[in-house]
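Hi D.,

Good news: the full-assembly prediction came through. Inputs first.
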Amino acid sequence: MKVKTRLPHLLMGVGILYFLVPLLWVLVAATKSQPDLLDSPALWFAEFNLFENIGLLFREDDGAYGKWLVNTALYSGLSALGATALAAAAGYGLARFRFPGKRLFETALLGMIMVPATALVLPTYLILSEVELVDTMWAVILPSLLSPFGAYLIRVYVDESVPVELIDSARIDRAGELRIFWQIAVPMMRPAIVTVFLFTLVATWNNYFLPLVMLSDADLYPLTVGLTTWFNTAQQEAGTRMLFNLVVTGSLLAIVPLIVAFVLLQRFWRSGATAGALK
Amino acid sequence: MTRSTPIAAPEADHPPAAAPVESRARQRSRRVTAHPVAGALFVLPFFLVVVAFLVVPLGYAFWLSLSSKSLALGTRFSGLDNYVRAFTDPLLLDGLLRVVLFGLVQIPIMLGIALAGALVLDAVTTKFAVAFRLIAFMPYAVPAVVGALMWGFLYSRTFGPFADLPTLVGGDPIDFFSVSLLLVSLGNIVTWAWTGYNMIILYSALQGVPREMYEAAVIDGATPVQIALRVKVPAIKQAISLAAIFTVIGTMQFFTEPQIMARFAPQISAGYTPNLYAYNQAFAYSDFHYSAALSFALGFLVFVVAYAFVFVNNRRRGKRA
Amino acid sequence: MLGTTWLAKLRGGLAACGLLAVAACGGAGGDDGGPVTVSVWAWYPEFKGVVEAFNASHPDIKVEWTNAGTGADHYAKLKTAITAGKGAPDVAMVEFQQIPTFIILDALADMGEHGANEDKGLYADWAWEQATDGEKVYAIPVDGGPMALMYRKDLFDQHGIGVPTTWAEYAEAAVKIKAIDPAAHIASFGSDGGWLNGLMWQSGCRPYGYSHTTAKDQVKINLTAPECERVVDLVGDLVDKGLMAKDPFFTADATAALDSGKYWTWAAAGWTPGYLAGSLKNTAGKWAVAPMPQWTAGADEQGDWGGSTFTVTKQAKNPKAATTVARELFGKSDAAWQIGLDKAFLYPLVKDVAADPAFTGKAYDFFNGQKVNEIFVPVSEKLGDFQFTPFQDFVYGELNDRSAEAMSGSRPWGTVLEETQKNVVAYAEQQGFKVSK
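Then the structure:
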């Protein structure tokens, strides 16, 4: 048996190297000062400068990075909560009720997943600008509430793992529909809900195009847009502000929270998703 | 890839999605309790968001695409002219061809690695395998913007360790940003970012394959590789094709990586990918009408390709059943 | 730690812009008799101090500055806001080559209506020409980029290579440099439309013509004139022979190459001393500036690469106050120019500032004490008329894409301008212009 797994282990070793090296590079590069970043060997440490970099990072542009971090957390947290709540209710409604137009809506749901996002951003900008919401946090959060895939996922999951009989017997006990949803269905849907929450959280956290178009006030930027701005500055005005070390350190701090969240929560959401597939 | 883009569709294909066909069949035979008003109320908030941020923008975009704005002449109604222009626009067609080419090479490689990894994870349960699973998945948590910046640094001669490797044996340094290597460099970024994600999806599907399905094969003395190819892969065909569809959709919308990479490699032209072209038409050339038409045409193509894929897939399965 | 204005903005967004009260939110400042607020989008380095200096000297106006991105990002947002009819700032930074683009988008207010014509004599003539159209003042010049040749004086001296005064000598020097150090190049082809444009300008090529006032639907495109072609022939030949590198400008790779002796020259602009001094450490003190090589020995043809202006948008709520801001943020402000020259390294287009001995006589350590502005100032004075198209992004995009093809070997350099000309004309006609050559 040991001999047979040698090749798979070798392949996995190569894989680990491939997936890890870029992340290691960021980790190493974030500890370097601007001159060392340009001069020292790419994958090895020079003078340890991480804390100076972090200090600089949070001081640059009057603490812009801190704002961007808070904005990102705020936008992705609110969007994920909202999108998950909407998707959970809709998925449950579609799976356990019958009403006019339902089949049509379900068919359309699959189509909605396929609409290219970029096709929506531009008209959404023009519409939001009509109601004066452009360049506010809502311009990023409201469009992010849309998650047809989340609704679809939850619909399938409810169908598989929330028994009709349980709901019926609750109805016989004269429980209200909202209470049935909240007290019986939601606890059973929890794995699917966590999955949808994490997906929408990551989608908004990593979002670039929507905030790029919607926001012009740097105070409202999320990390992705802010870091790109700094990168441009670093390239085009290198003479006055070499910011590469800050871009690198900022990138590191932008990915650490999500990686930690995923490593911690991976088992949970994965088991949920798997359960949904195979009941 | 625009998978992490705006309208939060976490375009994942996910095991639950792997089950819809049989579940729909089961559902039909089951009695669904009819409470039309309550049911509609549960769906209503979601429906409103769909109307506000999908139906109305799409309708608006379509309306925009029906008129033309030229710099000198102003705006006028032009019917389907923009679409005629789009499908005869060499820049769009170039970009389309580039993306198709990219997909034909990159998607099989990525899904192949993902599938192989998933099969290994399913068969090997050492701590090392668990570590591999966690690490392979990490790039998913890295924003596409940061991923592209990171690789941009890694590719560069100044920051990165790779470009100068050939000089160790007396060769010329590699220029990852040269026109001939750009597509490969971009393909590597996408592969790095999404392989682990797809692997986890396929692994989850594999975990759900009932052990009884291949116990017989084990008793018959089949090797793990034979079991993997003859039993496990067919068992998760549905999940594989869904992963493929969503990857195709993502590839057709290829945007963020080339947009960021253009800052390292100005050779990435305005029409490098169709989505980038639509973006530039709107935001660099101020032609929102043509841009809307481009986006619409692209969306339509994606839609047709994806549905054709589903259709062919279903038919093939139907025949076998 | 975090600025209170930012928190207030977020809180304001949360409270006033509640989902149900959509119409109630987004309002700007009130009419309480305080100073008029003027919003400005710009990406100048060290601009904060300039804004503070303005606000301190103008109690009736309060400038609110936003950095909406550098270059393309900034323009993308500006154009989107213009299309939407809302959301544009009162005053926007616009580079010279972009002015006609924003004029034809009907985005710019005529500052001539608010007395801006008074400033005519204040600025370098060529800049004022580009910023205005007859009596209409669309932009107020700020900084420019008169071109000159930066070169590694130490290396040129050490190997006895004369500083090239003509482009023919430049090409000969390129060969010598390669012979001395096979890893070195005379310069890099930067894949930068503005740079190539500057070289063509310096060659006497005038490829574009456009006036919104006289004929808004007519444009002249002539990229295939001999004066234009010879520029591309020269650099293309150097690239093909491996004498000129292919690194895009302003990337870390190009910067590192400049700092490690990989490039011996850079035909750059009046803002370059600041750029170089800030980013090159190893080669500081080893560079010098010489006038641009000429196409004809003894001639004095000059070109410009880059430069920017302030414009007032048609969305400005108070165009008069906005005009004041555009004219006086830099303009005659000593405080602003002190920051602009010493920290942001702008090349001033205000004649008096450029002629001031404090500027012309300034010795640069980076250039081993050379007073480089003595070279740049006459260049700027020599610059004549040069016009841009109202779709310059497209032209530069074409130039870059066709040059990229030539660099990868899929197109002969000799067809780059021909193909660009063809595509630009097709685009112009598609956009409804009558095109002449």
